[in-house]
């Protein structure tokens, strides 16, 4: 058996490379199946992930309220009383006008805001104890449930 006159080993190699390159890609159906699977995973995992973020913000607010409560307790030990509602939490970093017994600052850094970027609420004397300290939560309004629930010092 003889080979055609136009046959060369280089032509055979080029043709087999061209055929293998044509078969390397994905079909449209395969791409659509992969995209549907990714969409289903994102639909399942996404809400669970964002729910964890909401829980961590509430935990951060609770921890900050506890730290502020300890600073308020130290202030009371030094001055004999908790700051008034009018003085607010600012006296933890700057002495009040009659601050002869003030030995602060009682916070290492500036007065923090809650995880949602709003100021903590403070009232003294409080309805639930010597003072009430709270955050309105994600919605910034009194009350709420889940992520929008108020974070309070008295619970």
From TrEMBL:
Residue ranges annotated for the Type II secretion system protein GspG C-terminal domain, each copy included: 49-154
Membrane-topology descriptor: Single-pass membrane protein
PANTHER family: GENERAL SECRETION PATHWAY PROTEIN G (PTHR30093), TYPE II SECRETION SYSTEM CORE PROTEIN G (PTHR30093:SF45)
Organism in which the protein naturally occurs: Methylobacillus methanolivorans
InterPro entries according to UniProt: Bac_GSPG_pilin, N_methyl_site, Pilin-like, T2SS_protein-GspG_C, Type2_sec_GspG
Gene: gspG
Entry keyword set: Cell inner membrane, Cell membrane, Membrane, Methylation, Transmembrane, Transmembrane helix
Ranges in a coiled coil: none
Domain of life: Bacteria
Family recorded in the similarity comment: Belongs to the GSP G family.
Name by which UniProt lists this protein: Type II secretion system core protein G
TM helices/strands, residue ranges: 26-46
Cell inner membrane recorded as keyword: yes
Pfam families per record: N_methyl, T2SSG
């Amino acid at each position: 058996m003889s080979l055609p006159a136009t046959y060369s080993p280089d032509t055979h190699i080029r043709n087999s490379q061209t055929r293998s390159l044509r078969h390397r890609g994905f079909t449209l159906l395969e791409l659509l199946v992969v995209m549907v699977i990714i969409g289903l995973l994102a639909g399942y995992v996404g809400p669970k992930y964002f729910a964890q973020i909401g829980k961590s913000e509430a935990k951060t607010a609770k921890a900050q309220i506890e730290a502020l409560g300890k600073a308020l307790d130290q202030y009371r030990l030094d001055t004999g009383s908790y700051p008034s509602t009018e003085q607010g939490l600012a006296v933890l970093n700057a002495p009040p006008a009659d601050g002869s017994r003030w030995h602060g600052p009682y916070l290492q850094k500036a007065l923090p805001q809650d995880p949602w970027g709003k100021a903590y609420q403070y009232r003294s004397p409080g309805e639930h104890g010597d003072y009430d300290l709270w955050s309105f939560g994600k919605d910034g309004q009194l009350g709420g449930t889940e992520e929008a629930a108020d974070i309070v010092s008295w619970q």
